[in-house]
Amino acid sequence: MIPRDYQRAAVDAAHAQTAAHGNTMLVLPTGAGKTAIAGFYIVETVERQRDARVLALQHTDELIEQNQSAIANITGFDTSVVKAARNDWDSPVIFGSVQTLARENRRRDMPALSHLIIDECHRAAAPSYQAVIDHARGMNPDIKLLGLSATPGRGDGRSLRKTFSNVGYHLKIGTLIARGLLVPPRTFTIDLGIEDELAGLTSTAGDFDMRAADKVLNRSVLNETVVAHWKEKAADRRSIFFCATVEHAKAVAAAFQAEGIVAQTITGDMPGRERADLIARFDRGDVQVLTNCMVLTEGFDSQPVGCIGILRPMLHKGTFIQAIGRGLRRVDPARYPGIVKTDCIVLDFAGAALRHGSLEADINLDGDDTPKDNGPWKTCPSCEAELPLGVSVCDFCGYIFTREVGEKSVLSSFEMTEIDLLDRSPFSWVTLHADGRAMMASGFQGWAGVFCDGTLWHALGQPKRGAVRPLAIGTRVQALAAADDFLRNTETSTASAKSKRWLNDPATMRQIELLLRAGHKTNGMDFGLSKYAANCHLNFRWNRAAIMATVLKDMPRSAA
C-alpha cells in the first residue's frame, strides 16, 4: 500500500515531532484517512524499534473494531484488544477502550508502553483519558504520544495543552475537496423567521442552551416547513438532520413520517445492537432520513449521505464541520450500485453557516499545508503552541493568524488541481484518445482508468486476476483521485510506474503486434510509444467491452 502524499507527510511529521517533543497532534478532516496514517506510523515504529509496545486508545467499541481491522490490514501485525470482557496485552499493538482503562483496576496489567495513540484526541482533556495518560507516563516517562483529530478545538473550555504541545501536521478540508477526495458541500441557508429568537440564546457548558433552542425550533409548523424545503431541494437523497434535543429529533422524524418518508431517530441511549441495526438499515436505503441530537458527529460513516440538515445552533465551528463531514465522503459504486454523488446538500435552518462561514467559501482559500521549506513551524502568540506554518487558526486556542498581503493559495483552480494530482501520483497516466476522455495507469498488480460518458467521469479498476469494477462516479478530478487510490492500495512503492525507468523504453515489437491485432491504430514503426504506454493501451483494448458496459450502462443520477 502506498500512502497519499499528505499521509506520508503527516507520518513523517509524527515521527519528527514525537522525537523532538515526546508528543504531537495531527489535524486532518474526516475522510483524509487518519486510520491509515496511524497504521503507517505504527508499522514504521515497530520496524524501527523492535521492543515497541503501542496502545491505540478509542472511546467506542465500534471504533476499536474499525481501527483494529483497518490497521491490521496495513501492518500485517497481530493485535490485541482491551475492553469490557477482554484483557489481552500480549501483542505489540493493542487497541484499548478508554472507558475500560479509566478504571484503576483495569490498568494493573498494563505493560510499559513505548507509544500511545489517541483517536479523536480532542477528547483527551477528559479525566478518563488523563487517567490513562498519567498511568502510561508514570510507567514510562519517555512515552511518545500521538493524537489524531478532525476538530481539536471543540470549545468546551478544556485545554489540550497538558497533553500536546504542538500540531505536527494540519490539513484543511478544502484541500481534500479540491483534490477530489471529498465531495463539495452545496449550502442553503433557509430563513424560518426565527433569527431574532436564535440570536437571543445564551451559551452554557461550552455551547448554546439546547433546551432553550428546542423551544424556539421544535414547533410543528417549523418542522413541516423543514420537510417542505427538504422535498424541494433533496428529496432524492439519504439525509441526516442534527437537532437541538432528542424530543426535537423525534418530532422532526414524525414530520417526515407524516409525509410518507421513512424516517427514524437515533439516540445516545439506544442499545448498541439496536443502534447498529438502524444504521445498517439507513446504509441500505431502507431508512431515508435519520434525525439525531449530535449522536452522529463522530465515528459514523455512511457514504450515501447526500444531505445534511442543521436544525440546531452551533456555537463552535468544529461542531459544524463534524456535522457537515458526515456527508462529504465519496460513494464506492461497487458497494452502492446505482448511487452517484458529486456533492452534498447542506440545509441550514439555524444560521450555523452564516455564523461560521460557508465551507464553500473556504475551498479556494485552502492551500496544501504540506511543509515546503526547512522552517515549517510557527509559534502561536496566544498559547505558544508549535504549529505548521500554513495554518490560519490555532487548533489549541483559536487564535486567528492574519494572512500576509500577496500570499497566494495553492490548488485554486480545476486545472491546477488536476495537474497537481497527476504530478503527485506515483503512477504515470496515459491519455488513450485525442479527445482526452479516457486515461489509464498500470501497476504490477492491476490497472486503473478514468472514462467520460459524456456527462460524468467513471473511475474503474481491475486487480490482477480479478474483474473490472467501478471505483467512483463524479467529476474528472474525483474519478482520478479514486483511481489513484485504487492503485496505491494494490501496489507497493517499488512497483510504481514512475520508479521503473525501463518502462519508458520503446514498446517491444510483440506489444505493437498485439496492439495492431487488437485494432489499435498505430504505425508499426512508431518507436515513440513506450513499453508502459503500450501496456496501458493493451489493457484498454483487452478490457474494452467490460469498460464500455460499465461506463455506458444507465445509472440513476441520485445520492439517495
Task: Characterise the protein shown here.
The two termini are 32 Å apart. The chain has 560 residues and is of the alpha/beta class. The model is unreliable at 360-374 and 404-414 (pLDDT under 50). The longest helix is centred in the N-terminal third of the chain and has 17 residues, at 5-21. Helix 2 crosses helix 3, helix 9 packs across helix 10 and helix 15 (414-424) packs parallel to helix 16 (476-490). The chain contains 19 helices and 23 strands. It has three domains: 5-172, P-loop containing nucleotide triphosphate hydrolases (Rossmann fold, 3-Layer(aba) Sandwich); 185-363, P-loop containing nucleotide triphosphate hydrolases (Rossmann fold), CATH 3.40.50; 414-552, no CATH class. Strands 4-3-5-2-6-7-1-8 form an eight-stranded mixed sheet.
